[in-house]
Design brief:
The complex is a heterodimer of chains A (109) and B (144). Chain A has 109 residues and is of the alpha+beta class. Chain A is 68% helix and 13% strand. Chain A is built from six helices and three strands; from the N terminus they run ααβααββαα. In chain A, strands 1-3-2 form a three-stranded antiparallel sheet. Chain A starts with a helix and ends with a helix. Chain B contains four helices and six strands, in the order E-H-H-E-E-E-E-E-H-H. Chain B has two domains: 106 residues, 2-Layer Sandwich (Alpha-D-Glucose-1,6-Bisphosphate, Chain A, domain 4), CATH 3.30.530; 30 residues, no CATH class. Classes of the chains: A alpha+beta (109), B alpha+beta (144).
């Protein structure tokens, strides 16, 4: 997934609203998502396809319906990028954990 | 993404080691250097010290973090000020709580300005007004 696709996908208010619905309400069929938009069903499907191509949603078929769910990974990457200090501290805490294990080895000698 | 406190980073981690040992790693300069950064820390309130790391020219960071010890409670709490020389001052607080045979370490990095450009960026992405900033973001993302 390229950054271009991710940012382009997030640039649309309608697509952000779709993501918000999937985040707040969990996976659901395309039809239920579409009926809440003041636009044609094919237009909503097109938005869902853009989100899918960006890796932001995953699609599964159940009978005749397509179900969509939120994929968290790209948003997590975005969050790491927006909050570099959070990533810094997570990495440092991991290093601390490893150091403590090493200290134990030294104590045991 | 739930509503978050935009002025702080709050993390916690379980460490399978007793608080006394975690405390050593948090307050002995040689040990701190191994997991955090080289420093001239002393466990005394009012002591001013620095952490040194690689400069990051792109963001105007000279590689030196200026700190002061604000509060110490052995094996329970360490609070220091934290400034990279350009931005407003932050406070970093570690709290240790025994948990089973180990320690739950809480880290609070407080004092972020909600009007900081990165925070504004975050709001724009989730709130709107994105296209105007698209080029800048795209360029920045390409350099990751």
């Amino acid at each position: 997934m390229s950054a271009d696709h991710l940012f382009a996908a997030l640039a649309s208010p309608a697509r952000r609203e779709l993501l918000r619905m999937l985040r707040d309400e969990g996976a659901q069929p395309a039809g239920r998502l579409a009926e809440r938009f003041d636009m044609s069903r094919p237009s909503v499907s097109e938005h869902l396809k853009v989100l899918k191509d960006a890796g932001l949603v995953a699609e599964t078929r159940k009978g005749r319906e397509r179900h969509y769910r939120l994929e968290a990974a790209p948003l997590m990457e975005l969050r790491d990028w927006l909050t570099p200090y959070e990533r810094f501290w997570r990495e440092r805490l991991t290093a601390l954990d490893a150091l403590l294990d090493d200290m134990e080895d030294q104590d045991a000698r | 993404m739930p509503a978050e406190d935009r002025t702080a980073i709050r993390l916690d981690q379980f460490l399978a080691h007793p608080p006394s040992k975690v405390w050593r790693a948090l307050t002995e300069p040689e040990l701190m250097a191994k997991w955090l950064m080289p420093n001239d820390f002393k466990p005394e309130v009012g002591h001013r010290f620095t952490f040194t790391t690689q400069p990051k020219k792109a963001v105007g960071f000279d590689g030196i973090v200026h700190c002061e010890v604000l509060e110490i409670e052995p094996e329970k709490l360490l609070r220091i000020s934290w400034s990279d020389g350009k931005q407003a001052d932050w406070t970093v607080t570690w709290r240790l709580e025994p948990e089973g045979r180990g320690t739950r370490l809480f880290l609070d990095h407080e004092g972020f300005d909600p009007d900081d450009e990165v925070q504004q960026l975050s709001r724009r992405i989730m709130g709107g007004g994105w296209p105007r900033h698209f080029r800048t973001i795209d360029f920045l993302a390409a350099t990751l």
